[in-house]
Amino acid sequence: MPEPARDRFDVIPHSQGRVGAHRAENPGMHGWFVLLWAAVATVVLIAAGIFLAMLAMGRIGFDATPAPTASPTATAAKPALDTSFAVFVLNGTTATGLATATRDTVVNAGFSAGSVAAADADKQDLAVSVVYYQTPADKAGAEALASLLGVSRIAQSDVYSNDVVADQKQLTVVLGADLAKNAPSVQPTPSDTATDGSGG
User: Fold this and answer.
1) CA separation (Å) from 185 to 12, 34, 76, 95, 96?
2) Are 91 and 124 in contact (CB under 8 A)?
3) What is the mean pLDDT of each run of 10 residues along the chain (200 residues)?
């Protein structure tokens, strides 16, 4: 094929330089630099994920107030028994021997045997036991006796007084069905009743 004839477009002056659009060479990034940035980004994402997870679970917080530490609860001391009282124990249930067994408990706690008496109450259908005291000054003694016997109620009353020893301050325990479980399983012998000078 014959070569085409040259024209003016084939003649480019050397002083004019390059003509037309051209693209500069793009300097490439080194491989180790890309790897380093990828490692840093991975560590940051893992740390952020751990932080957010612990924050969601409440393991960390922004409250500067320290968490209160648990302290052992102090056990309330039982009131001290005042054995200077005379004690009258009345059985307000049908449980045989309940008053006598309770009298023994009171005497064994330190009360004078001659100042503690047991008998049957006028009624035997009392549901809840009560310790009666005569004056406000006797309330602490009633609370201590109630604690000894497991009685949940105390009340002030002047109905019971001087029933055991004349002119001696007195506490009266009226036993109800809540303490009938304390009655002895064996009925007291007549000799025991005669020794106590009481019934029930």
Assistant:
1) 134, 92, 33, 9, 9
2) yes
3) 67 59 55 81 88 77 56 62 94 94 95 95 93 95 95 92 89 94 68 48
